[in-house]
Amino acid sequence: MPAQPDLTQTEKDKLRFGVDFDFREVARRPFTEITPNELGMYKWWGIYHQLQKGFFMIRVRIPGGLLTAAQLERAADLAEQHGQGELCITTRQTLQFHWIRKDDLYKILEGMQGVGLMTKNACGDVTRNVVSCPLQGVCPCELDGTTELVAALADDPEIRDQQRNLPRKHKISVAGCGRACGQTLMNCQGWYPARREPGSETSELGWKFHAGGGLGARPYLAKVIFDWVPTDLVLPVAQAVTEGFRRWGDRRKRAFARLKIVVDRRGAEGFREGILEILRERGVAGLDRLVPGANPPTVGDSFLDGQTVIPQRQPGFNIIRIMILRSELRTADSKRLAGWARAYGNGQLMLTNRQNVELRFVPDDRVEPLLTEIRNAGYPVDGFERFPDMVACVGSTLCNPSVSDTPNMYWRLWQDASNDRRFWQQVGPLRINLTGCPNSCAQHWIADIGLRGARLRRDAGSQDGFAIHVGGDLSGQGHVGEFVAQVGADQAVAVIRRLLTHYVTNRIGSEETFGQFARRLGGKRLAQLLGSVPTAETPDNVRNLLMQPVFDQVLSEARADESSP
Question: Could you give the percent of the chain with pLDDT greater than 90?
Fold first, then answer.
């Protein structure tokens, strides 16, 4: 089929190259013969060209973030042989390799396939890794069926293999209950178990379905499409949504191609009617059992609130949480964690959406010995959902779109937290997320404090900086973080410390969290408390004042960061 001139370049490349490659054949070709457009199509196999010419990142597909000790050990061995001995945990509960040479790409792909994991569909315009709440299958709050539904959606032949030419990436979340742990509101499809409303003939367990969430440069929160879907219809509905996205997504303006745009333009009712029409086309029976969504989302607060040890729903067993600093696993770390999973648990590990690791099925009498080993090895086991538990992308050291050094910023903040344990305990629940560009890979929009990378103008050039957003939340109807200020990287720690000090001083009672405080005041009022008020009127030369320690001076006119929605 010839390329159509009005399609985006990516759509033309799909028609020209296809999405399937033989990476053994790629290894035999000179790098100079591979065009940038072809490199872009490698994403369909989880492969991105790094910032450094000739080196690649590879992302593995790990449904629900659950993997075995043997799988982690294989990944560690491959990273040691081909990727400088390091793995990264992503916010979508997967592993990433970095520094992989072109000639070694197939070795990673085939090596992970040997332990039952693939990189296919880890990136590209496909359904990406299906994510879940980090306690799926073992959470005391879970209703039922989470692990089974994750597997069914992740391995469905239509969704995984046939729908590999979607307008943009497509993301699915399956939570274990109606709480925010599973990040229902920020995914293209968001599912959690629910019972039919009281007064119906049966209390049959089914699933509540949301659609249209997504972050990136234009954040959207999901809408309720069906209040109740019987379990036997979940897969047909998910397939129909994927097919609807294929039909209705914009292939001529890539910035508007996401499902979140489709749902926003059609509205919940229009989108629901379109999905029902596809289901009728397919001859799916029992559609009268679907209960249309009647109200906005009502997601509960996360169950996770600083616990190190969490009793499982299975009596006598526990989840042990281990904080992984800046999501980085060296070979020794990976093998040590795998060893603990075998020796103390059932050989399984969970990768979380905050880039940490959990060991599960640890018997009651083995908890303390395991915690002793973890502490002696130097891993933090407290501070979860607090200041130390930060999320960060790989930043400008490895990623092409990134404009700021998020790893460096992470370590500056970590040092500040480490040096003042009393302060972060006083602050209480706090999620800080750092992302290096507007793509929001580290999900800055839904954090209590979200930092997005920016280049700031200086007389001598430009400087690393960050736009600070506050009050993001995925409970209730959700809340997108509000812009407060744009600051230089050298001032960010002081600004965040000042924000938190204002919170500790001015919160309403000990129960008001920083997130609630930030949403109550709003971004503009917090900017005033900082002594800087970026608004739409400030000329470019005034913006530079925000990079200097003049936070006690209130600027009556300032211009908001133009790249911030």
Answer: 85
